[in-house]
Amino acid sequence: MTANQKMTLRLILTEADIRKVILNTRPSTVEDLISKLKESLGLHYNFSLQYQDPDFNNELCNLTDTEELPGKPTVKVIPVLEPVPVSSDEVFSDTTSTAETEILSHSPQERLKKWPEFFDIPTFSVDVEYRLRQANLLFMSESIYLKVTKELKHEILERLAESMYCYTAYPTAPQFESVAAALISKHPCLQERGSTARCCGWKNSLKHKMANYRTKRRQSGCLDVAVNAGKRGRHTAGGQPANKRIKKAKKGEINYLPNFPDGFDQAALEGACKDLVDEMQKRTPNGLLVKQKMDQTFALRRNEVVESEPAISTMVKRWPALFTEDQVCSRKRR
């Protein structure tokens, strides 16, 4: 085809925004095509392109050469998120060093936050954010609700479940409701017609998604949910009866049963525990070393308390540093 021939294409911006585009000339390169689409449609973000390939029953393929396009192609826009460059001065600034020191001084715990008063909806993928932004504009101008596809709903719920897990593995009904309300507040196009709260369906979907997310975490070996496996007898080993001693974090418990810190196994933490006992037998124990070892062995200690429920006398003998004034104060911060 000649380069000066007009080009007509079907352009998919989102599932709800599909346009017919006519270009005065047929671009010779993919970069030229992207440039003309940006100019024609006023797109101010970077993207790549996919097209429906007739050789594969019109399945989408990445576009690398405009010669591959049929006469009137269907092309899909794929937004690209580019990393923001950071100067070396910012990376090695004193502020960053202080922040890194503070992070390293914390215990190796997965959760360091309590449930917020107002849940902050996380940022979704570039594609999802763009589709929601377009739908929100349409909702505000014409009051048209977004028809949520299965794929879009899955991505939204998966991201919300990850954010909720940062606070608790077992959200309560009011917490589910607060997340659903925050979602439709930030993205009003997701409101549900026929529902008094406009988000009852999202609340129920979040409950199911959170249960599925806990299952995936349990299968990957996450202890704070693995401890509750087998309550119906399906996951118990050796045909044991269903586990009736289900252990969940109480209200306010952030790190109920954390995993071992990266790079440490049971044997390594047992060695740290022995070092602690030896250090506490000294007339003047090294406070900094004691704190470091106590933080390091926090997961091992919690595992013993939850799984074995040892007597106080056993804990005093095995973890003498646990009953010092400094560690009592540290436990309140944990």
Give the ordered list of helices and strands. Answer: EEHEEEHHHHHHHHHHHH
Main sheet record? 5 strands, mixed
Helix proportion? 40-55%
Mean pLDDT: 79
**Structural class estimated from helices and strands:** alpha+beta
Radius of gyration: 28 Å
Query: N-to-C terminal Cα separation, in Å?
Result: 69 Å
Describe it for me?
- This is Sterile alpha motif domain-containing protein 3.
- It comes from Collichthys lucidus (Big head croaker).
- The chain is of the alpha+beta class and 334 residues long.
- The protein has three domains: 73 residues, Phosphatidylinositol 3-kinase Catalytic Subunit, Chain A, domain 1 (Ubiquitin-like (UB roll), Roll); 100 residues, no CATH class; 67 residues, no CATH class.
- 45% of the residues lie in helices and 10% in strands.
- The protein is built from 13 helices and five strands.
- It has a five-stranded mixed β-sheet with strand order 2-1-5-3-4, sandwiched between helices.
- Helix 9 runs antiparallel to helix 10.
- The longest helix is centred in the middle third of the chain and has 20 residues.
- The radius of gyration is 28 Å and the shape is elongated.
- The termini are far apart.
- About 6% of the residues have low confidence.
